[in-house]
Amino acid sequence: MSLPPLSPEQLVKPAHFELRMSLIFATLFVSQGTHLPYFPLWLQAKGFHAEQIAVILAAPMFLRVVTTPILTALADRAKDRANVYIALVAATIIISAGYFLPASYAGVLAVSLLLSIAWTPHSPMADSLALSGVRRFGSNYTAMRKWGSISYFCTNVAGGFILAATGPQAVPVIIFVALAAALVAGLWAPRMGRPRKASPLSATDIQHSAPSLFNAYFLYFTLGVGIITASHAFLYGFVSIYWKSIGISDSVVGLLWAWGVVSEVCMFLFFNRIFASVSVAKVMVIAGIGSVVRWIAFPLIWPLGLGIAGFFGVQTLHAVSVAMVLIGLQKMIGETVSEERTGAAQGIAYFFNGFFMAAVTLASGPLYDRLGVDGFLAMIPIAIVGLALIGLAARSAPQHPVRG
Predict the structure, then answer these.
(1) Fewer CB atoms inside 10 A, N or C side of the chain?
(2) What is the sign of the dihedral through the CA atoms of 200, 204, 207 and 209?
């Protein structure tokens, strides 16, 4: 598919492009690195029970599956995506201030829903800006994006120590300050104009290209990925609460989350050396088995007396159950989806991941309320269903990778 020509202005590389994008990624992931591990602790501290926490976490996931593709598609049509990014970050700051109000269930849920609309598009829009630099000027995407992973890791660690000193009430403050820093970095965002090709989550691209992607292999594979990913919902929603309930300090909770990130990054670094010759279906089977092992192990660590070291060991499986899933999905798309349909493929995978994650997160509240840490056992059949779908995908895999 031919692309429209670049304007004379778009042919000029913005000054310090890589540095400016690196700052955007670094500030972007501070708020996210605080929200995922520590927001459930703040909700619990405000007196919400497990089922209410699950609804507050899950409802925004359902909403953003619909709103994010719409907003990213609208950003593609704007005069400059950087301006849309800045507006969304500013809106996110204003909305997040709602967490400073008296914490009623309806109020926190409303703030979380509104926040998901403005917050979720930040990452795909930053990716879109960075990838425009990759295509036009040969910039190195990983050299820019790695600062997001580094800041996420640092936030996991620092957040734990901050909460150990201040308690969970610091969570909304950290998120608010981090978003303010993201706004400052966003004001310096390089202006790239409209993209020459729709963003990875473009609703229009999905509508036009999705029918050709609805083949057995692609559907089984992306459904399997979505369901294996969703088996992590109990972990994301309630593991921090569980760790605190057995007397693990906030600082150690932060280190445990950070160790999962370290393991994930290590898999990204060494994947090609270890699994370059392994088929994508086998990669996903290994990832699914790693998920099952992880959910079997989690409830046994503390009763068996393996202590904090045992949790660090099981967190190492993040490299298998999360990183290999992410890599496997992109490997499958790269091998079997032609370039002009890549955006639609990413969008469909995003939908499946988001929908199933939201559904399992919603169910995780009652599970934790009734079973505690044994709720991890309910994630085992979910991961097995994902594995079965990957098996069906393997049986219908194309004989040759796509060319071009």
Answers:
(1) C
(2) negative
